[in-house]
Amino acid sequence: MASNLKERLIKLLLEKSFRYSEEATIKLASGKMSNYYIDCRKTTYSSEGQFLVGNIIFEMIKDQKIDAVGGLTMGADPISCSVAFASHTHTNDIGAFAIRKERKEHGMQKQIEGDVKEGDRVVIIDDVITTGSSTIKAIEAARRECLDIVKVIVLVDREEGGKAEILKHASEVEAVCTKSELLEAYKKKAAS
User: Fold this and answer.
1) Bridging pattern class, strands 95-99 and 112-114
2) Is the pTM here over 0.70, yes or no?
3) Which of 5, 11, 64, 82 could form a disulfide with 50 if both were Cys (CB 3.0 to 4.6 A apart)?
């Protein structure tokens, strides 16, 4: 991955998505209390964030014959669409899909929507992993739809055991960046 794109992404995550407190006052989805919070959507819904994330992840998967990327809505949605767009600019079309938390009760009653079909080689995407539970839900839903999961890519790994849990359900998990990298960049920025 181009290091200058990753460096810029870390700066953008710090500017838009990273919140830090000396005390653990922030409640996470897992129920744990933390002294930092990462709302990746502030970055992934920005135009620069979409450019950076799309190109970085496309570079990570471009040689793996991937048909589509997607994950649990809504954290994965802007990332998946950014990767699909980046792939098209490199004439290597990769589709995007979204996984609902629950199957729809009406219409075609789908849980997975988008440019993907049974048998496709896919990458499951997530914005942040802590315990890995939402990523595992996405993996299970994709398997029920007979998608071939090649790997999982997460934008930020909070390094709290989620990656190990996901590895029980997928053969490969890669993070674009980690909590350690963000905290290091945050401390450097605060010291300057």
Assistant:
1) antiparallel
2) yes
3) 82
CA torsion 55→56→60→66, rounded to 10°?
Answer: -40
CB 95 within 8 A of CB 84: yes
Rounded to whole angstroms, how far apart are CA atoms 131 and 75? Answer: 15
182 is written with which tokens?
């963000």
Helices (H), 17-100: 41-44, 47-61, 77-89
Residue 146 identity (one-letter amino acid): C
Q: Helix, strand, or coil here: 32?
A: coil
83-138 tens-digit pLDDT: 999 999 987 899 999 999 876 565 556 789 999 999 999 999 999 999 999 999 99
Residue 93: left if φ>0, alpha if ψ -120 to 50, beta else—which one?
beta
Peptide bond into 33 cis (omega under 30): no
Beta bridge partners of 97: 70, 114
